Amino acid sequence: MNKIFVYGTLKQHQPNFALIKNGIFCGVGRLPKSNNFRMVSMGSFPALIEVGNNTPQEINGEIWDVDDESFKNVDYLEGYPTFYAREQFTILDSAGREHTCWTYFIPDELATRELKSVDNGTWYGYNDPAYGIAGTDYRA
C-alpha cells in the first residue's frame, strides 16, 4: 500500500476521486506550514508550489492508503515525473497523528508563471467564486 495526501481533484466528491475510491480513507489531514508550500489555482485544479519563507500556508486535504495500481494511475494523472513531482512529507491527521505520505507538487522550474493563490489552503472545486472559474460544485 502507498499512503498519499490529496488536496484537490482526487478528494472525495471531486472529479478524479474514482482513481482512489477503492483505497482506505485514513482521515482528513494537513501539511504544516513548515514545509514551505502554498496552494495555487491552475484553473480547473490546484497545485502546491514551494515558496520558502515567503508566505507558506497550511494545506488541507485527505490521507489515503492506495494499492500499487491506484498509485500508478495517480502518477499518470499528475504527469509524474514531468509535470508534478512527488516527495514524502509528514502529514498530521485531525488527532495530531503523523502519517508519512506521498505529496504531489509543482517543481520550481515549472512554477515560474503568475498563479492565483488559494488563500485558505483548501480546494473546494473549480467553480468556487474565489477562483473566478465556472464549473461544477463538488462540495459535499
Key features of this structure:
140 residues; mainly beta; Hypothetical upf0131 protein ytfp; 5-stranded mixed barrel; 3-stranded antiparallel sheet; 1 helix; 8% helix
Task: Tell me what the structure shows.
The chain has one helix at residues 68-78; strands spanning 2-6, 24-31, 37-41, 46-50, 59-66, 85-93, 98-105, 116-117. Residues 129-140 have low confidence and may be disordered. The protein has one domain (2-112): Roll (Hypothetical upf0131 protein ytfp). It has 140 residues and is mainly β. The two termini are 27 Å apart. A hairpin with a 4-residue loop joins strand 6 (85-93) and strand 7 (98-105). The protein is globular. The chain contains one helix and eight strands.
Q: What is the secondary structure topology, with strand pairs?
A:
Elements: E1 2-6, E2 24-31, E3 37-41, E4 46-50, E5 59-66, H1 68-78, E6 85-93, E7 98-105, E8 116-117
Parallel strand pairs: 1-7
Antiparallel strand pairs: 1-5, 2-5, 2-6, 3-4, 3-8, 6-7
Summary, kept brief:
Helix content is 8%, strand content 36%. The chain has a five-stranded mixed β-barrel with strand order 1-5-2-6-7. Strands 4-3-8 form a three-stranded antiparallel sheet, with no helix packed on it. A hairpin with a 4-residue loop joins strand 3 and strand 4.
Query: How many β-strand runs?
Result: 8
Q: Please report the distance between the alpha carbons of the first and last residues.
A: 27 Å
Q: Round the Cα radius of gyration to an integer and report it.
A: 14 Å
Low-confidence stretches: 129-140
Question: How many DSSP helices?
Answer: 1
Question: Per the principal axes of the C-alpha atoms, what is the gross shape?
Answer: globular
CATH topology: Hypothetical upf0131 protein ytfp
Q: Please estimate the helix content.
A: under 10%
Average pLDDT works out at 87
The top-level CATH class is Alpha Beta
**What is the structural class?**
mainly beta
Q: Give the CATH superfamily.
A: Gamma-glutamyl cyclotransferase-like
Q: Describe the main β-sheet briefly.
A: 5 strands, mixed, barrel
Which H/E pattern describes the elements?
A: EEEEEHEEE
* CATH architecture name: Roll
Strand neighbour order, sheet with most strands: 1-5-2-6-7
Tally of structural domains: 1
* Percent of residues in β-strands: 35-45%
